[in-house]
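in:
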């Protein structure tokens, strides 16, 4: 979706988009925060209904909470567009098969390992290294991805990104520029995780909320860059980069607090993209298009 489309939206279109987004965000929060509140404040009563929760991230209620954005996207697509109408369920599904150039598929897979490698080498050169195990990143993470079910059982990909980048992002981009839409979505996305910070056994319970929010907003900007250049395909702009972000945790790439390593790297990348490409995150493409359209010098 081009930046000019955001400027061309009529007041009625904008009101409809805002209603759709409000319903989507409200439903996603209601499901996840509702289940989170039950787990945190009424666990004995909840276990009386569903049985022992045990290791919470293996329980079906956890998967239901994590998949709330996708559930909400499906529900809102049906509510506002039906099965085949404009913005309906078919339109949501077709986003996942939009054609994408191979370069951007590779970028979605490799941008995060590459960014972590550059950050680790720079930290080593400045005498602040040691937080990232480059061998685990270069060998352990790919082996885990190719030989285990780590990526398949991770619900953060399709469970979240059908909603965040499949449903919300294209609508937000009709209201404002991609970088600003991404930062707003990143804030909403990060705060949606809040119940996990109070549930023992979940990764977020070990993290600082402030670092997590900054990292989520920066990662959302990078995903918006992939969205702009990846033809709005949520696999490229959401599912794959989300899984690549999570994989280093499982592969034990970080020797110390993961966010202390990840957040500076992703913030640096996001700032670089906005500075070089502008808030539309398509600066190079615009420059090349203008150069091709310019008349030949006499």
């Amino acid at each position: 979706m081009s930046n000019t489309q955001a400027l061309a939206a009529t007041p009625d279109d904008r009101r409809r988009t805002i209603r759709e987004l409000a319903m989507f965000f409200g439903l996603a929060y209601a499901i996840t925060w509702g289940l989170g509140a039950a787990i945190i404040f009424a666990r004995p009563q909840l276990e009386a209904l569903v049985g022992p929760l045990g290791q919470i991230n293996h329980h079906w209620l956890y998967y239901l909470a994590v998949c709330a954005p996708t559930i909400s996207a499906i529900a809102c697509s049906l509510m506002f567009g039906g099965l085949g109408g404009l913005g309906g369920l078919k339109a949501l599904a077709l986003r996942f098969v939009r054609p994408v150039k191979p370069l951007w598929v590779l970028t979605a897979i490799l941008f995060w390992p590459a960014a972590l490698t550059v950050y680790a080498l720079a930290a080593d050169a400045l005498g602040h290294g040691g937080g990232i195990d480059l061998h685990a990143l270069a060998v352990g993470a790919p082996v885990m991805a190719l030989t285990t079910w780590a990526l398949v059982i991770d619900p953060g990909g399709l469970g979240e990104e059908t909603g965040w980048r499949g449903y919300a992002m294209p609508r937000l981009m009709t209201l404002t520029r991609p970088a600003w839409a991404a930062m707003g979505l990143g804030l909403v996305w990060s705060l949606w995780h809040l119940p996990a910070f109070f549930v023992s056994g979940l990764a977020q319970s070990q993290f600082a909320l402030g670092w997590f929010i900054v990292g989520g907003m920066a990662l959302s900007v990078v995903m918006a860059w992939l969205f702009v250049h990846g033809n709005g395909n949520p696999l490229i702009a959401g599912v794959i980069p989300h899984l690549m972000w999570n994989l280093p945790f499982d592969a034990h790439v970080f020797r110390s607090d993961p966010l202390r390593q990840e957040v500076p790297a992703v913030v640096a990348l996001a700032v670089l993209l906005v500075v070089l490409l502008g808030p539309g995150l398509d600066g190079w493409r615009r420059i090349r298009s203008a150069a091709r359209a310019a008349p030949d010098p006499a």
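note: The chain has one domain: 3-293.
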